[in-house]
Design goal:
The complex is a heterodimer of chains A (about 180) and B (about 120). With about 180 residues, chain A is mainly α. Chain A has 8 helices and no strands. Chain B has 5 helices and no strands. Classes of the chains: A mainly alpha (about 180), B mainly alpha (about 120). Chains A and B meet through helix 2, helix 3, helix 5, helix 6 and helix 8 of A and helix 1, helix 2 and helix 3 of B.
Chain lengths: ~180, ~120
């Protein structure tokens, strides 16, 4: 068992985690927590639910590590888990809120305004958060992958498990929605 | 970076052709950064490892119960076999009467026992 895994590559971390090394798995969490946060908070907004989903992502990752064959990068694998669990959470919240509301889109997106040093940074954070929160969830996943994660359309399609054509059409639709929203911000 | 530039970046990220990696990096640099609260990693690791410890204890308990049950069941089966053998040796058959131990009892004697005559 090592004292520090900062220099270790993902494969070494996975092997050590499978042997029950707590420190190795902590390093995986530290390495990928921001990646997961961008997906989960981008799609869900900032809420306690986002923290819970984030934790769930890594718990699921830990339990599915024995099945991880290394065909995809670990980051892609984590990203897929994060997207699936976040979409499940959105569905769950929709079902829950639909019991109490008769409006169509009852999902409650809480805006994330990051702790920023300057007013400009706060504004930037607010614009992105409001833009994401204003579009439909099915478009939000695609936009989050592009805007916050910086994935290409092909990578986005792979992670979301969608055909490339669907990703492209969702991007176009999201762009239409966003143009109107952004003008008002 | 002012508001308008941020808005342009957001719009540009949705162009199919644009390099979104660069946009994402610029946005992060401009303060659009996401992370979980402090102590997130510790919470996750604690949940995983304390849960697996608990699961291990539960598995151990179930295994020991299984072992105990097997031993009790084997002893029970052995006792039943011995009992059946002894009945067969003593009574010569497995009829209901011989199992209840009334194989050699005559009806008349039962009637006299019951009526006292």
């Amino acid at each position: 068992m090592k004292e520090s895994y900062r220099q270790a590559d993902d494969n070494e971390l996975i092997r050590a985690s499978l042997e029950g090394d707590k420190l190795a798995f902590s390093e995986i969490v530290n390495r990928y927590r921001k990646l997961v946060a961008r997906t989960v908070k981008g799609m869900l907004g900032d809420s306690v639910f986002a923290e819970d989903v984030g934790q769930e992502v890594f718990i699921k990752l830990y339990h599915s590590l024995p099945e991880f064959r290394g065909e995809a990068k670990l980051s892609t694998y984590i990203q897929r888990i994060a997207v699936n669990l976040t979409l499940n959470e959105i569905k769950r919240r929709k079902r829950f809120f639909s019991m109490f509301s008769t409006k169509g889109n009852n999902e409650m997106y809480e805006f994330e305004v990051a702790d920023a040093d300057t007013q400009e940074q706060r504004e930037a954070s607010e614009i992105v958060s409001r833009a994401l929160g204003s579009i439909e969830p099915k478009f939000r996943a695609v936009v989050t992958m592009r805007l916050l994660q910086g994935y290409s359309t092909k990578e986005t399609a792979e992670i979301l498990g969608l055909p490339l054509g669907t990703v492209l059409s969702r991007l176009s639709r999201a762009q239409e929605q966003l143009k109107e929203i952004i003008e008002k911000l | 970076m002012n508001r308008e530039e941020i808005k342009k970046l957001v719009n540009a990220s949705l162009d199919h052709e644009s390099s979104t990696k660069e946009i994402a990096d610029r946005l992060e640099h401009e303060g659009v950064a996401y992370d979980f609260k402090n102590g997130f990693t510790e919470k996750v690791v604690d949940k995983i490892f304390s849960a697996s410890k608990q699961v291990n204890q539960e598995v151990e308990f179930v295994l020991s119960m299984n072992y105990a049950f097997k031993r009790i069941a084997l002893t029970g089966v052995a006792a039943i076999i011995i009992l059946m053998l002894s009945i067969f040796i003593m009574e010569g058959s497995f009829s209901i009467n011989s199992i209840f131990g009334i194989g050699n009892t005559y009806d008349e004697s039962i009637i006299s026992m019951l009526t006292g005559k």
